[in-house]
Amino acid sequence: MLGKLIKHELKATSRLLVPLYIALLCISVINHFTFNYGAEEGVFAVITGFLFMIQSLFTVTIIIITIIFMIARFYKNFLSNEGYLMFTLPVSSHKLILSKLIVTLFWTFISAIGVAISWFIVSVSANNINLVSFTMQTVQTLFEELNATFGFGWVTVFIQLVILGILFLVVNILLVYTSIAIGQLFKKYKLVISFVFYIVIRIIIQSLTVSGIVGLEYTLGLNETIFTVSNANIILLASIIIGFIGCTIFYTVTNYIFKRKLNLE
Amino acid sequence: MSHILECKSITKKYSGFTALSDVNLTLERGRIIGLLGPNGSGKTTLLKLINGLLVPDSGKIEIDGIEPGVQTKKVVSYLPEKTYLAEWMTVNQVVEFFKDFYEDFDVQKAFKMLEDLNINKNQKLKTMSKGTKEKVQLILVMSREADLYCLDEPIGGVDPASRDYILNTIISNYRENSTILISTHLIADIEKVLDEVIFLKESTVLFHSSVDDVRVNEGKSIDALFREVFKC
After folding, report:
1. Total structural domains in chain B?
2. Which candidate, B103, B82, B73, places its Cα nearest to that of A89?
3. Residue A87 contacts B, CB cutoff 8 Å
4. Nearest residue of B to residue A80 by CA position?
5. pLDDT at A188
6. Mean pLDDT for chain A?
7. Do A88 and B102 touch (CB under 8 A)?
8. A90 vs B71: CB contact, 8 Å cut-off?
């Protein structure tokens, strides 16, 4: 059933997102030609500048639209009238939440890849900015740096960084879900309460993180920062564990509300 | 044969307001039952509880011996009073959706009924009138071979001609094993198909009896009795 939920969720979301990504790629192809073969002076330069601006705007917009659309989709599909259909399907609330989470992650990656490809198209064989070789160089430098700093341990560090990145994304998505779920417990101002709750939790997380680090440094009697190369492994591991705990808490709260405290209008 | 639905002293409150208070009900299989009562008497709340959209504060609900959950949703077909289908979908797409999730969904039957009511399979829901959307939803719900159908105001927004078709559909779908629970205000329209009635008043069950008993004992139609009981 999870597979079917994901299939239908992809159908529902791709109708907006796929045309958007295609539009991004089309603009990139046009820009590729204007940047590479356009004149550098006069009217053409203005047009080139304008198109470059559009390209940049589009890049930012596409990521923002993806995020907002996925949040709106969660709210509309589960907590508006459509919720009557979704919550009477013979599937558990776990699967409902997971299907949304997985599809949101999927589109986040796709939008990131789409943006990367669009800049690749624009810059490949460009005269002035050669983004491709620049990126390659950066990646190479990054790996060299990692190697130099961590020696043989850099693979572990790299894998931990990737896991941490995904966890960071998941915990943020789940926090949004929890906020929306908590907002719907109230009769009025559901979305306002969701937003306030989200901000409050954000502030609490920030303060806990800062005070945790300072507290730890103080307890250990360190004169310097705790973020040293030799501590990298343990810090990454601790962050992963904390991130995982955060995910578990937000997931459990959302699932509990959907299962026991649903309050569809 | 086991009861299809059993409610044992169910109470449900929303922020200070009691929607249902100590409700006891037992429904048998093979009946068409009218759930009647004025606005705010708890009809919709009861149907939501049966479908797991709400959880009772106290008491117990069992559908064929099981509390509402994934298992019971497989055998209960629910028509809420809301239009719950996504607006961007076509009729074909919603049929596909139902087919994917409900094993007991009969595609042929759905298309037959859509044809009878002249509903275009390729039309998007957002271009339909409210009445047509309600028809589509009812067709989807009735195209399942469920054990229990819960219909919340199924004919409220539908024109009288289609009402007859829909009521006929409901009756012809009647199977020995399944029970249909219909909540409505339009008693006169629906009275002829009912086997039993439940009157809800101020969050409690006023009475639950067979339609024949009401006619014999009270000497009047359900509609007349309703008007008398709930006279303002």
Report:
1. 1
2. B73
3. yes
4. B84
5. 85
6. 86
7. no
8. yes
Confidence at residue A232, expressed as pLDDT on a 0 to 100 scale = 74
pLDDT digits (tens, 9 = 90+) for A229-248: 677 778 888 889 999 999 99
First to last CA, chain B: 41
Alpha-carbon distances, residue B68 vs A210, B20, B60, B74 (angstroms) = 45, 17, 10, 10
Structure tokens at A101: 């989470």
User: Tell me, what's the ipTM?
Assistant: 0.93
State the nearest Cα–Cα gap between A250 and chain B, in angstroms. Answer: 21
pTM reported for the whole predicted model: 0.90
Give the per-residue pLDDT at A130.
61
What angle is formed at CA A177 by the lines to CA B83 and CA A3, rounded to 5 degrees?
70
Binary contact (B71, A1; C-beta < 8 A): no
% of chain A surpassing 70 pLDDT: 89
* CATH code: domain of residue B222: 3.40.50.300
CB of A12 within 8 Å of a chain B CB? The answer is yes
User: From the candidates B47, B53, B76, B134, which should be mutated to test the interface with A, based on the most A CB atoms within 10 A?
Assistant: B53
Domain of residue B203: give its range: 5-229
DSSP line for B3-50: -SEEEEEEEEEETTEEEEEEEEEEE-SS-EEEEE--TTSSHHHHHHHH
Please give the single-letter amino acid code of residue B31: R
Q: Cα separation of B128 and B126, whole Å?
A: 6
Distances (CA, A) of A91 to A173, A175, B5, B19, B69: 21, 23, 21, 27, 8
Q: Could you tell me the mean pLDDT of each successive run of 10 residues in chain B, 232 residues long?
A: 88 88 94 91 94 95 95 96 93 96 95 92 93 91 94 84 82 82 88 91 91 88 88 80
Alpha-carbon span B104 to B78, nearest angstrom: 13
Question: What is the rounded distance in angstroms from the CA atom of residue B123 to the CA atom of residue B139?
Answer: 15
